[in-house]
Design brief:
Keywords: Signal. The chain contains one helix and eight strands, in the order αββββββββ. It is mainly β. It has a single domain, classed as Avidin-like (Lipocalin), CATH 2.40.128.30. An eight-stranded antiparallel beta barrel has the order 1-2-3-4-5-6-7-8. The chain is globular, with a radius of gyration of 16 Å. The N terminus is likely disordered.
């Protein structure tokens, strides 16, 4: 079965799939409401991201119109870094390609949501051309 991102997020918010069939049950969606960022808006809003001691904001690039082009700025104390990003979402999987003067980083992660908290976030790992190891990242998607 092919699922859209909206379906995936609703399934995540509703608590998962029916074990016997692997499909969402009808009663899981009753009273769900609009508590998470609509799927078609995930690439039109700011992502608040953390990786190690760095915190930052990933913002849609001017004129991007939901195509996944982002501009990122991070801070760690007085240090600052910035980069261009291309975010791709397939189902509940997120891939981010980060390009900056030092080279390129690739982020892999998964979308998650919480009906109770009314939010969507992504967590995963990334690796950069200039870094010797894989690192963790987390972003809260602000709707």
């Amino acid at each position: 079965m092919r699922r859209t991102l909206a379906t995936t997020l609703l399934i995540l918010a509703a608590g998962g799939l029916t074990p016997a069939t692997g499909q969402p049950s009808r009663d899981q969606f009753q009273g769900l409401g609009e508590t998470v960022v609509p799927a078609n808006n995930l690439l039109r809003v700011i992502w608040r991201e953390t990786e190690g001691e760095w915190t930052g904001a990933w913002s849609p690039a001017p004129g991007s119109d939901g195509n996944g082009a982002y501009r990122a700025v991070w801070h760690k104390g007085r240090e600052r870094a910035s980069a261009d990003l291309q975010i791709t979402i397939t189902g509940a999987t997120v891939t981010v390609v980060r390009t900056q003067a030092e080279g390129r980083c690739t982020y892999h992660g998964n979308l998650q949501s919480s009906q109770a908290q009314g939010r969507v976030w992504a967590t995963g790992v990334y690796r950069c051309d200039w870094a010797p190891r894989t690192l963790r990242w987390r972003a809260t998607i602000i709707g």
